[in-house]
Design brief:
This protein is about 25% helix and about 45% strand. With about 130 residues, the protein is an alpha+beta fold.
């Protein structure tokens, strides 16, 4: 299991988000230029692994993930950012086969808008704390 798989599972587990952005438009890395909007990209920023206790079958990992939303208007971007926050923040449970202990919002990045292209984007970061098999 990876933090990327967990993030994708969190996003795809939210019916309200999927009603606006189908799973096919939730992609790792960068949103391809020909992709219809709205769309979402997610990526791994960093991870910190704690040393497991002797004999433990797992270790605790905290990964920082960035989710970037893209929409056709400023208002749609802000609405989509709210849906992403609600889909991820405060979640616990099993996602993508991994036990997720906590997901918490970190920073919300700057508005990155292109008026001529009518593409409005903004990133939001989350810390995902999960158990990884040793």
């Amino acid at each position: 299991m990876t933090a990327e798989e967990i993030t994708y599972a969190l996003l795809c587990a939210d019916a309200a988000l999927l009603a606006v952005v189908p799973a096919a438009r939730i992609v790792p890395g960068v949103i391809p230029q020909a992709t219809a909007l709205p769309a979402i990209a997610y990526g791994h920023v960093s991870s910190v692994e704690q040393t497991p206790l002797a004999g433990s079958p797992w270790r605790l990992v905290t990964s920082r993930m960035q989710v970037t939303v893209a929409a056709g208007s400023y208002a749609a971007k802000k609405d989509l950012l709210t849906l992403v926050r609600k889909a991820c923040n405060g979640k616990r449970g099993t996602y993508a086969g991994a036990l997720v202990l906590n997901v918490r919002r970190d920073t919300v990045g700057p508005d990155i808008d292109s008026e001529p292209d009518r593409i409005y984007t903004q990133p939001i970061d989350f810390f995902v704390q999960w158990r990884e098999a040793v």
